[in-house]
Amino acid sequence: MNPVALWRRLLAEFAGTALLVTSVVGSGVMAQTLSPDDVGLQLLENSIATAFALGALILIFGPVSGGHFNPVVSAADWFLGRRSRTGLTLSDLGGYVAAQVSGGIAGAVLANLMFALPAVTWSTKDRSASHLWLGEVVATAGLILLVFALARSGRAAVAPAAVGAYIGAAYWFTSSTSFANPAVTIGRGFTDTFAGIAPGSIPAFLVAQCVGLAVGVALLLALYPGVGRAADQVVVPAGAADDELTGARR
Prior knowledge:
mainly alpha
């Protein structure tokens, strides 16, 4: 059983996801401002900032909630760990998803306000195409494989750097620029900036991410049959902060 109170974990997931979306949207706005005539440079600036921010946020919030910041990671954690009772419970999963989605929206609003934009500016950037959906399947499946393979092989300590590096790279090797996260996808619909996605494009992205989740889980079960036993180590072992404090008092 996770030793950290649920409300603390949900707060960590809300804040972490909010700041992740703020970094995605804010760095996109800054990239457009600094490099207005070079889309490639804009994407480079956006991807570097996002990768670094994601790694830092996992380090900050991971010891409290695991640092999921992503409904598909949380869903995989519940599904894979349900039999061994190492992952999230079903009620915890509902709370995590709600915190992540609301955090994603709040993060987009915060980024808009920081750059003197209206709090909500619905994106007009259409991202509806089959090759983009395929890119989301690939990006999401790869992310699921990465975080659970690290946990199962006892390398969860490197997750902040590894996950940040993967997302930074996937910006470039996937056609969709690797949203790979339903909460971030929904949040990015609330900003008509470089990182935005039109609300009409969101449902298909969410479906593609769910397909990527299924593909990633199927591959994990084939490659790491006992992966469920390590579900409580994803992305970072939750409760580590409390354990360290307890040890310090002894």
